[in-house]
Amino acid sequence: MKRLLVRMALLLAFVHLFTLTSYAETLKGKIGTSSKWGSGWIVLDKSVDFKRGDKIKLFLGGSAKKILVRFLANGETADKPVGIEGGVINVPKNKIVLLTISKEYKNVKQLSVHGGRNPWGLYPLGDNNGPATIMRVDYKAQ
Questions:
Q1: Is 17's pLDDT higher than 60?
Q2: pLDDT digits (tens, 9 = 90+) for 20-34
Q3: Domains of the chain: total
Q4: 3-state class of 15 per DSSP?
Q5: Does the residue 3 lie in any domain?
Q6: Which residues contact 49 (CB under 8 A, 6 or more apart)?
Q7: Is-contact 140 23, C-beta < 8 A?
Q8: Of 2, 91, 106, 113, which one's alpha carbon is 20 to 30 angstroms from that of 73?
Q9: Is residue 2 domain-resident?
Q10: Contact partners, residue 127, CB within 8 Å, separation at least 6
């Protein structure tokens, strides 16, 4: 029994290590926040084409319990709710959101997360929903 428990612990440790290192790269860019809008973003150093099935891992700050994730392409304006991916997302306690991208987003210059009460007046996230910020974004192409 003890040997089985040791093997299971080793297997779980391997799986955990594998999932931590399986993302190909950390996206580079300038991180910003807006307390007024309850949002955070990263302006990417170079634009990225995201494809359906690609994965991102968002490391969040802030106190938001629910967020929206947006992919903003060159030429799109930040004051419009374009590029929303995945709908309303519940933030887990560890504040790491794993997202599999459902469609293509070409020439993306900025990734952002939106918390607060009601982003763009279209997504009621709750009166007690706090702001969301981005600490880091890891990316893995399919």
A1: no
A2: 445 579 999 999 999
A3: 1
A4: helix
A5: no
A6: 104, 105, 106, 107, 108
A7: yes
A8: 91
A9: no
A10: 117
Give CA torsion, residues 132, 101, 83, 25, to 10 deg.
60
Token pair of 128 as six digits: 């007690």
Q: Return d(Cα 98, Cα 114) in angstroms, integer.
A: 16
CATH number at residue 102: 2.60.120
In this prediction, residues 80-109 reach a mean pLDDT of 96
Mean pLDDT of the residues in the chain = 90
Residue 82 falls inside a structural domain: yes
Q: What does the alpha-carbon distance between residue 59 and residue 140 come to, in Å, rounded to a whole number?
A: 14
Q: Which domain, by its residues, includes 53?
A: 25-140
CA angle 30, 26, 90 (to 5 degrees): 85
